[in-house]
């Protein structure tokens, strides 16, 4: 009975350790999920920023139109206007490339999270399979041990009978 309690205690300790590992992995996944949400929030901020950039771009284009009307004959002012346009274009390109980089990073993190989920599921399946295999091997070994003990007993009986028969002869 005490052995049964010991086995139950060992089983409970084993399951408790497994439960703790699962909880730790869940905490890690939760942390990664929070990071992904932060990146998503950053992307939303970038989108809002892009909207304000578009508004700024529209305002700049309106000012450019006014400048063109006022300075059609002045070549110097035209060059300045071209410089402003080039600067805005570079800013827009820079902003677009930054936004694309963030999208890629979020996509990579999402894929990494998905791969970790797959890995966890695979590990759980392998652990279950290994546990079943171990139980089967233990059963086979128990059967073989019982068979070996029975054969040893039969051998001793036959040996005893053989000794008895030799004494009789």
From TrEMBL:
Coiled coil found in the keyword field: yes
Main location (coarse class): cytoplasm
Record-given protein name: DEUP1 protein
Coiled coil region boundaries: 99-126
Keyword Coiled coil (UniProt): yes
Annotated TM spans: none
One cellular component (GO) term of this entry: centriole
Cellular localization per UniProt: Cytoplasm
Sorted UniProt keywords: Coiled coil, Cytoplasm
Natural source organism: Chunga burmeisteri (Black-legged seriema)
Gene Ontology biological process terms in this record: centriole replication; de novo centriole assembly involved in multi-ciliated epithelial cell differentiation
């Amino acid at each position: 009975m005490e052995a049964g309690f010991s086995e139950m205690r060992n089983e409970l300790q084993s399951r408790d350790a497994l439960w703790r590992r699962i909880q730790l992995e869940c905490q890690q996944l939760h942390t990664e999920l929070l990071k992904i949400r932060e990146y998503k929030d950053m992307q939303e901020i970038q989108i809002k920023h892009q909207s304000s950039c578009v508004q700024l771009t529209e305002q700049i284009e309106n000012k450019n139109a006014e400048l063109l009307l006022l300075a059609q004959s002045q070549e110097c002012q035209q060059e300045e206007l071209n410089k402003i346009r080039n600067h805005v274009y570079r800013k827009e390109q820079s902003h677009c490339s930054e936004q694309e980089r963030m999208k890629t990073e979020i996509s990579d993190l999402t894929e990494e999270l998905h791969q970790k989920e797959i890995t966890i599921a695979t590990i759980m399946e392998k652990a279950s399979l290994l546990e079943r295999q171990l139980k089967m091997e233990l059963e086979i070994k128990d059967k073989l041990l019982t068979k070996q003990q029975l054969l040893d007993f039969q051998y001793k009986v036959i040996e005893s009978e053989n000794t008895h028969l030799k004494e009789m002869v």
